[in-house]
Amino acid sequence: MPLPSTMQSVRFDTHGGPEVLQLVETPVPSPGPGEILIRSAAVGLNFIDIYQRTGLYPLPLPSGLGKEAAGVVEAVGDGVVRFEVGDRIATATAPVGAYGQFHVLPETAAVRVPDDISLETAAAVMLKGMTAEFLVRRAFHVKQGDEILLHAAAGGVGLILAQWARSLGATVIGTVGSEAKAELARAHGSNHVILYDREDVATRVKEITDGRGVAAAYDSVGAATFESSLASLKRRGTLILFGNASGPVPPFDPLRLSRGGSLYVTRPTLFDYVATVEELDASATALFDVIRNGAVKVEIGQTFPLANVREAHEALAGRKTTGSTLLIP
To answer: Which NCBIfam families match (predicted)?
Structure first.
């Protein structure tokens, strides 16, 4: 299929709500040295997109948006050695701009998608799945017999992380906001589910663990759940903060960690765990392996045409989504 001269892409000129996102016609870019051009089959929607749109993680403006996509290589720049035209690839660590029909990215930011995994699955799972990988295998090493707390257990990362942790022998306590999400969480790895708006999370965690508390609490919600996460930890437990869906955590006195039982708090990001090509390939390989062996099943909860990007952002920000959300260019 010949390349068109223009494409549809999403741009924004100012930080703000979903209304700042505009679908515009832009030239199809050409790859430079070390770069590849992909024709996107599907684009993943993630909370980092919302943080960048609102300015919590500010971008130089005007800007495109989106870091996760899967598609087919249409052109390669000088010096490219990892890929050829026609290769199926996915990315979650490229510079922003995935919200479009085509995307140029460094070859070092892409991984090859195995033939037995669809491009839609790859787009739905790359950022969230590699996030789950480093969270359960490296930021905190989940092992047989561990009890863990997982907020937003029916979300994109939550459904993958719960299944992965369960496959490692952990007991997963998930929190959700509705009965429908509770059912989804139970079907995707959560041994116990807490409805956070009806029950006190820390109290229920202590009941479930016979007073011990959890070895690790995975918290992508932030301000609204920070206190319950800390209160749910056992002695020398670890709180892994990896998102701010309800807003950033306010400053706190580190002495609280001592008083709570010599606790640990970390605020990791995926990009520090896939900083080299070797780390990126290893993380993606581990992810594709658990999908292949059935330990992790990918839940694509909803898809939106690229033209409906504002509606998609409203749904994700309003916690009205389950699993992964795709934009289809």
So the answer is: PRK10754.1
- The DSSP 8-state label assigned to residue 12 in this structure reads B
CA 147, CA 23: separation in Å to the nearest integer?
45
Distance CA 189, CA 68 (A): 24
Residue whose token pair is 């999400």: 181
Q: Detail the DSSP E strand segments found in 121-251.
A: 147-150, 171-176, 192-195, 214-219, 233-241
Domain map (residue ranges) of the chain = 6-126+276-328, 144-267
- Tell me yes or no: is domain 6-126+276-328 CATH 3.90.180.10: yes
Angle (deg, nearest 10), helices 309-317 and 47-54: 100
Residues 6+ apart with CB under 8 A from 287: 125, 126, 129, 130, 132, 133, 296
In DSSP terms, 216 is beta-bridged to: 148, 238
Q: What is the pLDDT of residue 245?
A: 82
Residue 312: count of CB within 10 angstroms of its CB: 24
Q: Which fold has domain 144-267?
A: Rossmann fold (3.40.50)
Classified as helix, coil or strand, 42 is: strand
Closest CA to 89 of 53, 135, 40, 138: 40
For tokens 């359960």, what's the residue? 136
Q: What is the mean pLDDT of each run of 10 residues along the chain (329 residues)?
A: 91 97 96 98 94 93 96 98 98 94 97 96 94 97 98 92 97 95 95 95 98 97 94 98 89 95 96 96 97 93 96 91 90
Q: Fill in the DSSP letter of residue 138.
A: I
Whole-angstrom CA distances from 190 to 145, 168, 170, 326 are 14, 13, 10, 24
pTM for the whole thing? 0.90
